[in-house]
Design goal:
- It is built from 12 helices and 10 strands.
- It is of the alpha+beta class.
- β9, α7 and β10 form a beta-alpha-beta unit.
- It is elongated, with a radius of gyration of 26 Å.
Length: 420
Amino acid sequence: MPGDYEQLVDEISAALGAPATLEDRDFRLIAFGAHEGDDDSMMDPVRTRSILQRRSTAAVRAWFEGFGIARAKSALRIPPDPAAGVFKGRICLPVRHRGIVHGYVWLLDDGHLSNLELGGRGTPPDPRIEQAMETATRIGALLAAEARAGAELGDLLRELLLSGAADRPAAAAALRGALRPGATEAPLAVVAVTPWDTSDTDAAPLPGLPGLLAASAMPAGAAGTEDADGTRSAAGRPGGPPGAGSRAGTSGHTLAALVRLRTAGGLAPAHSAAEHLLRSPRAGGGAAAGLGATREELTALPGAWREALAAARAAHAEPRLGPVGQWDAIGAYRLLTGLPAGTSDETIRPLLSPTHAELARTVEAFLDCAGQASRTAQSLGIHRQTLYYRLGRVEKLTGLDLDEGSDRLLLHMALKSARL
């Protein structure tokens, strides 16, 4: 498929005599034609960044969309704007299929295309533009076919991740049959990205990231049913006390992505996919990602999904764990994310009040530092006497004794759980 796109982009470049790039509707680079010549001035910062980073920034996207490219059905001319980093003008060819825009072909215009008639207002377009738009339509058909195939794989992945033990072998066989041959012979990882925006049902397919086999938007809180041995698993279900605020994975949707790894335990491709997906416009504000442990068999993926969702929630709760959390590195959150929704303890409820936010932060830091006063005071930038005063107030509010290990454990876990 990438070779097909590159060939079609080269056709457009040859027809119009200008270097072209193809981006999806989220401005992720799909293919680019040859940029001939040794003169660096033929490029501008926006084009260079698009090729090197394989995507454009949100600001660049907003600037170009301001010209109506998402609604356009024919070629558009966009003037240069050095203030926006667009030193050269552009001709934009919308890539559509059956009325839906799937991407854009961009041609740099250093002035030699200024007399090219794009058509409109009763004036027919230049034959070269007509030829380029016909090629863009072929690209649109390819992107639409890729989107349909991706949606079918996503449906099969979702069915497997949410399947019970009895239905799991059949669901795994269906997904294996739909994937390209040999795709599941390597170790696999599941990535969760939450929240994930599904409001645009005509959105472009996910980028062709290395190793990305399938992806699906999962309903809020969907963490599967039972494990392979038939026992119920709570890992990854929404949890935390009432009033703790919105939690990752409990509003909107979460994206589940299946990634093929190079080696067992080598999660680098999954990390890379998670980081790319977090930069998508469809990843909500403050989104976080999580990775489950490596699996060898498709039937084991529901467990990996629950781990990935739990790791994403932990990364959302604890910035030091994110933005990409890993199941084997989230510590106590492996247990806390498995608590039923609404789990709380009455003794710490006063600390959850905004009035006592400073006390909660202080005692959590004290417990994070294993009860070492000097280390805690240094981390908070306060005097030790101030620390002792605040800890005394915490004991009065909660009725807990911070000299007792069991009380410390209860308070520590309750405060961590309140973050979820």
